[in-house]
Amino acid sequence: MDRNGGGGSDPADVQGQAKDAAFRPRFMEVPTFLRLPLAETAAGLDIALSGIPFDLGVTNRPGTRHGPRQVRDLSSLQRTRHPTMNVEPEAQCRLADLGDVKINPFSIEDSVARIQAFYDAVRGHGARPLTVGGDHLTTLPVLRALKPDAPMGLIQFDAHCDTGGPYMGQPLHHGATFKLAVEEGLLDPKRCVQIGIRGSLSEAGQWRFSYDSGMTVVPIEAYFDRGWRDVIQEARAVVGDGPVYVSFDVDGLDPIYTPGTGTPEPGGLPMHEAQRMIRALQGLDVVGADVVEVSPPFDPTGNTAMVAGTILFELLCIMADRLNPAP
Amino acid sequence: MDRNGGGGSDPADVQGQAKDAAFRPRFMEVPTFLRLPLAETAAGLDIALSGIPFDLGVTNRPGTRHGPRQVRDLSSLQRTRHPTMNVEPEAQCRLADLGDVKINPFSIEDSVARIQAFYDAVRGHGARPLTVGGDHLTTLPVLRALKPDAPMGLIQFDAHCDTGGPYMGQPLHHGATFKLAVEEGLLDPKRCVQIGIRGSLSEAGQWRFSYDSGMTVVPIEAYFDRGWRDVIQEARAVVGDGPVYVSFDVDGLDPIYTPGTGTPEPGGLPMHEAQRMIRALQGLDVVGADVVEVSPPFDPTGNTAMVAGTILFELLCIMADRLNPAP
Amino acid sequence: MDRNGGGGSDPADVQGQAKDAAFRPRFMEVPTFLRLPLAETAAGLDIALSGIPFDLGVTNRPGTRHGPRQVRDLSSLQRTRHPTMNVEPEAQCRLADLGDVKINPFSIEDSVARIQAFYDAVRGHGARPLTVGGDHLTTLPVLRALKPDAPMGLIQFDAHCDTGGPYMGQPLHHGATFKLAVEEGLLDPKRCVQIGIRGSLSEAGQWRFSYDSGMTVVPIEAYFDRGWRDVIQEARAVVGDGPVYVSFDVDGLDPIYTPGTGTPEPGGLPMHEAQRMIRALQGLDVVGADVVEVSPPFDPTGNTAMVAGTILFELLCIMADRLNPAP
Amino acid sequence: MDRNGGGGSDPADVQGQAKDAAFRPRFMEVPTFLRLPLAETAAGLDIALSGIPFDLGVTNRPGTRHGPRQVRDLSSLQRTRHPTMNVEPEAQCRLADLGDVKINPFSIEDSVARIQAFYDAVRGHGARPLTVGGDHLTTLPVLRALKPDAPMGLIQFDAHCDTGGPYMGQPLHHGATFKLAVEEGLLDPKRCVQIGIRGSLSEAGQWRFSYDSGMTVVPIEAYFDRGWRDVIQEARAVVGDGPVYVSFDVDGLDPIYTPGTGTPEPGGLPMHEAQRMIRALQGLDVVGADVVEVSPPFDPTGNTAMVAGTILFELLCIMADRLNPAP
Amino acid sequence: MDRNGGGGSDPADVQGQAKDAAFRPRFMEVPTFLRLPLAETAAGLDIALSGIPFDLGVTNRPGTRHGPRQVRDLSSLQRTRHPTMNVEPEAQCRLADLGDVKINPFSIEDSVARIQAFYDAVRGHGARPLTVGGDHLTTLPVLRALKPDAPMGLIQFDAHCDTGGPYMGQPLHHGATFKLAVEEGLLDPKRCVQIGIRGSLSEAGQWRFSYDSGMTVVPIEAYFDRGWRDVIQEARAVVGDGPVYVSFDVDGLDPIYTPGTGTPEPGGLPMHEAQRMIRALQGLDVVGADVVEVSPPFDPTGNTAMVAGTILFELLCIMADRLNPAP
Amino acid sequence: MDRNGGGGSDPADVQGQAKDAAFRPRFMEVPTFLRLPLAETAAGLDIALSGIPFDLGVTNRPGTRHGPRQVRDLSSLQRTRHPTMNVEPEAQCRLADLGDVKINPFSIEDSVARIQAFYDAVRGHGARPLTVGGDHLTTLPVLRALKPDAPMGLIQFDAHCDTGGPYMGQPLHHGATFKLAVEEGLLDPKRCVQIGIRGSLSEAGQWRFSYDSGMTVVPIEAYFDRGWRDVIQEARAVVGDGPVYVSFDVDGLDPIYTPGTGTPEPGGLPMHEAQRMIRALQGLDVVGADVVEVSPPFDPTGNTAMVAGTILFELLCIMADRLNPAP
């Protein structure tokens, strides 16, 4: 199937323009992430995009199971070339949308296993995963599937550290992902940075694990006091040259950008600075990335998904350019 | 690509249930019409579904260019088997979603040509077209592509006859489709029925062509006075046994069902009766059908597209069952 | 100012079509009720349309102060000729939109006085008033301004009788209008009909005045049991040949049609039957009419105002046709 | 705490009107179901209202966990006395809102146990439960808690029979409630009626259990053909004089009334007829009732919850009047 | 009634976790401000929260009568401990939600009297008031009830000075509050600061009183030029050590944060800086505070109320910590 | 017609306050831009406001044809005097709203001709045009009508340079306006500044014309790095003292302010800085200005139009003050 994303042999193309993206109106076609082709497996791909329609890990508002679809729809607004970096992902890498992981809507544990199996296959083909969630628990099985030789680094944009303990006896939930990942040896806390942390707490030690384990936590107040350049420079220093995973929880942004999310926290990151920070990661060995916590039912305007689609493209650009830099 | 619509080899399916629709959550996957497989051409298909993202034919509110995408999304709520008729389209016919016609967003004339070319190809493969619009002008090039040996019959659900003359000098617009189709010999007015007509008029003779040419017009007042059974019985009598096209303009329904449309007219058809009327067409030689005038920007709830997806399934059932009746 | 509603000398009209309503796109221009011309006074008019942006009379949800503006906007969807009656108001009568009554947002009493003064002027010019509210209290000063020689008849479409006593010591509120009008000798209760009454009650005798005074009350249950034809036939019999006022509270309809209102009551009148009932009043001596209780903030879709605009046109048609019947 | 629902000793009441519901604006106060007093236990109550904020049983769209809160808010629009029956629940019975069952957001099984324990306590106090869901699975533990001496009767308003088998291996889900209840001996299928059934099916035998077990199924087509009076008369005949549970799934209504639900099916019950049918149950021994499947995130207008609040009041009236008939 | 807010004795709590806030899902229960317990009077409280559902003081868009309810609902998203200050209000002070003042929906004057009487009672119990409005006029009777020995200081976040004269003859409206409060000797203008002032003016001297009386006015332009730290430092210097009232009008923020308000003015305060400024008031003798002008009908998303709930928690933290500082 | 905008002789004005804008509630009246009087022609005007309800030039989402109406409605929130500059447009200049250009909804070319003819007439009367679009193509015929003696300067706030070539063979579209204007000699590229440019690109050279022709392009990254003061200072230097046109595309702002637009690009200009930049243009010879790309169907809240109304007032202030400076 060609890059036109499944629209068929296009009998209506009477002007020979089928190969020119500029002549394909953005509102048409079955929507895929960033209008990439669909693929059945990751075979032959450099970067594999996929969705995880899952929300059983949430503690409050559900709805992220509907996230991947809407991000596919709104990511059509992205064009093919980065505005400031000399990067054009499709020209530099082999990319496709693999569709969604088939989760089990009645079981956290089974769903986590299914997610890991899906990404095991992706890794088996040698592709790097770029994911649209789903709640933040979905990052855990992706990290597991990456089976790093050594604990990886992490750059996390988020309002919450997500390093809490069990909730009502459940260890697997969207507020515990990164504690579990560290404990499982998937992440090296000394190479983890969490940016944008804020919001009232249920107890004084809610995010103690982040601090105690040696993660670098950048509360939103420090973020604004220091400025984005200083913060992301420190982040690069912390993660160093090794493999790093980038996880973008849309609630890291202020809810004016992404109201469609389960645990919004007013007073968050500005979008234009988030974009600048991602670009500043150019050159890092980003082995995987995700955009999570888009809950469409809480934003009927679709703006949250539009913003998530923009972040998705920014992440894709740094991943693609590292794999095969533009000349 | 199998019926799962592009979701890949599904490495996460650990229970061997991939073939069972019941185990594929409806909120997942790249959305296609009724969760049918995508296909590049109509080769080998009995019925080919496609979208026409077009709104240049409207005289008032635009937005139907965004219709096919949202109907794809919301038609996921349809399951595979009809509730009252012994019909299961996918079991009886070969079906697929061909994607969208690539229209020209700057030209009515070129778009109409592209639509016809697309459907010429569909007909070339021997498939019957089932379309999601797009404004009602899109029906004209589909009828042209059907190239009937003799003028066809028509059953049209609509608030407006759409048999007007040029508007501001433009003969091709969504209020003129069926006048043009009759004049071009595509439709036999004696075998045309228009159901649900209502709404204030710009002039006394606005829909005169329908009456003068011999179409059977059922104004909404007569509809309610007579009841749906009597009306659809007459419709069947009028169209007879020959080939017939069924065109469902969502503004035929009351806007409480389908507010997302360009020219809503309060006081329209009830949804449950529209469903009954379509079912009453079982057995007719429906050579093509469409659902048109879904304009998502005017209904952020998506309910209009959900209703359109339901109508789409009803239409598919009668088309499929005629081609290959269930045992 | 000509019928084009203030659009200026229209230098862009290069085809000489300025007089043809069909060539004036409905989405353009400063919106007036039904795209009628604006006028500064009612001098020379047969029927004067105006708005009363008032909501101080409500007991629950406010917002009807924003009603007239949105009804102006959405009434643009009405064309000039009735679909089933041989009526074209602008061809039969002199009509204009007088703008809004300037109410006092801090005083019920002063606003009621201002409304009456406005309509005194309208009546002074011999024009009949057709009003868009505003809450239902606004009908009272209009009735006062009509200064009938004898108590008038009333046909009221409503979920509530609005014949209650003072509320928190305030006699002037939207639930007391018609009790006050009867007590003031403006209405003859024997010639009053209230159609669509329903909803839970604060006390057993909440609407006792209607019954005790001799009004004909048609609860929604009786309405559905008898059918619209029987009900409106009785209504015509009750009001007889004398002057009658028609008051249409949009909460008489089911809230599926008009969710943007202050006291919605599920289980109400169907829109298409409301239209039929108004048409059945053709020939009555309707000396004034109104559509009230449109509260836009409670319906961001604008559908409530669209429905109200349709009702407004139906009312105008029967008023205009009585004054100067079509040949 | 008095009937004013927690507003305190009301130092602002300077006119001695605290006891008069008419003087308590409906938009104020902490919202409780129907503005009833809060209570900590069901001790001393005839009928206990409560909410079950649960949505883990859904197969598609989540969000019913947010249902009870919004129904509390919008049920403020209900007044105290029934419009057509001589019933005033608070005058006839002791009523209170017990708040919500504390569910476990990570476990279907634990939540079902918690729900049953809550209702065991309610029954222990001799009160009859009236519940706002929550998805339809929540009805199962309520039925269990009722511990009927003999299988009970059921009147169910719904688009789906909810008598399916396990889904992805999970026997406890919102489409299986009534099969399980019959199998557990809680319901007598010969005394069960399901009204409004419709919608496409996943397989021919999806609701076979209903038919095979002897339930009376009234598909929507039969419903419209026969009329509400005939249907509810049959329902009364089927359930007879014994104890009966009434379960109202808001998706039984057409989605124009209740778009905020997880599995909407166009072409459903009209609201005014649903009200008439509930009233026709007056005198039945209704030992418990519920309104379920309100999912606020899918209806930002709140209309779904408003309709549910109206149904809640109708149900309360028949329950209260049976327990202590008005003189 | 315990901290669980009215949910009863919780028979469903089968794990003994009733005292642990972490185990009480935030979407459940009758909503109170910040999930605090309800109380009938302020007896024994340090800080009393209450709502004033009032909007008769507005000059343009109404709807703030619906504010307290929605802020109760959305303030559930707040947890119990401040993210950056060592403050946990419930651990440091006795707090409760007193419900709403029972206003008179037909009279500004009577409502103002009722509000004052309510707060007189609060003060009689020695509690400090923390209020959710209502329009900004509601601050006046609260200030009156505080009956300060000497005129108090004021820190006001707002787009408008609200120091205007009568409007249409009405001295009591939401644009005149602080002029009246100064004239009544309740506030010392030399100790008043108004931050965020902007927006077009009706006349050059619209806010002259602020300047002439000696208030410190910080227009938004100066605010952005100087930065939040400098501005709030000056504010602290201006108000000094004496008693001060903090009034937060949500229109002080940019409408991207709080679109649900009556007189939005684009170009306003950023939320994260507003939070920092409130925190910088730690230690001040804040004798009362409020969050006003939340109008839910103009923001169906609820984001305005979510932001207001966050501000409410920030205000509570500084009030509680001053009364009983954390160790 | 006096300044009250068509409300008639105002018989209800019983207090002689008709001339005082403060006493005219902002929610009333037929809405005109900024509540200015309507006029049929530009005769005698200094500045003529008008709308262009046009969206045929868009490449993606339509809907700007509905822009002028909603901006009229929401611009009612603007008062008469600027908050920081000593400017009161109505006191300094003769102003009116001319209504809308009557476009041809089926033809780009004819519409462009009609727009130019309309503005030719405006210029014929010596008035300066201030326009509300419409998509950005509408600026081209306005520039043509200005018939400058020498190429003009341009200050453009926008996410896109709009200097592209033909799209699908159509040279006239909203992404090509300024290339065409330069090529036609209407603009001097050396005196053109484009501020806020961003967003992914379809090809590397998409906006090459801007750079090659000598326009000053300020990408959003440079904008944030340099600060608004530096940028607008450079802009003034670039345009110099000669005639300049100011074009404000609302997608230049971040979509949090203006989601109702066709090609939103996250990460844009802050509103308060846009206001400061416009004010910094005081004294420039602004011969015309516009606010374009407001698409109401994509923002049901109306906030986009409210922001556009605010920008409209800012633009009017600098235009009016240059023509007749305040004393």
TrEMBL record, chains A, B, C, D, E, F:
<feature type="binding site">
    <location>
        <position position="158"/>
    </location>
    <ligand>
        <name>Mn(2+)</name>
    </ligand>
</feature>
<dbReference type="Pfam" id="PF00491">
    <property type="entry name" value="Arginase"/>
</dbReference>
<dbReference type="InterPro" id="IPR023696">
    <property type="entry name" value="Ureohydrolase_dom_sf"/>
</dbReference>
<dbReference type="GO" id="GO:0033389">
    <property type="term" value="P:putrescine biosynthetic process from arginine, via agmatine"/>
</dbReference>
<feature type="binding site">
    <location>
        <position position="136"/>
    </location>
    <ligand>
        <name>Mn(2+)</name>
    </ligand>
</feature>
<dbReference type="InterPro" id="IPR006035">
    <property type="entry name" value="Ureohydrolase"/>
</dbReference>
<comment type="similarity">
    <text>Belongs to the arginase family. Agmatinase subfamily.</text>
</comment>
<keyword id="KW-0464">Manganese</keyword>
<keyword id="KW-0479">Metal-binding</keyword>
<dbReference type="GO" id="GO:0008783">
    <property type="term" value="F:agmatinase activity"/>
</dbReference>
<feature type="binding site">
    <location>
        <position position="160"/>
    </location>
    <ligand>
        <name>Mn(2+)</name>
    </ligand>
</feature>
<feature type="binding site">
    <location>
        <position position="162"/>
    </location>
    <ligand>
        <name>Mn(2+)</name>
    </ligand>
</feature>
<protein>
    <submittedName>
        <fullName>Agmatinase</fullName>
    </submittedName>
</protein>
<keyword id="KW-0378">Hydrolase</keyword>
<dbReference type="InterPro" id="IPR005925">
    <property type="entry name" value="Agmatinase-rel"/>
</dbReference>
<dbReference type="InterPro" id="IPR020855">
    <property type="entry name" value="Ureohydrolase_Mn_BS"/>
</dbReference>
<dbReference type="GO" id="GO:0046872">
    <property type="term" value="F:metal ion binding"/>
</dbReference>
<feature type="binding site">
    <location>
        <position position="249"/>
    </location>
    <ligand>
        <name>Mn(2+)</name>
    </ligand>
</feature>
<feature type="binding site">
    <location>
        <position position="251"/>
    </location>
    <ligand>
        <name>Mn(2+)</name>
    </ligand>
</feature>
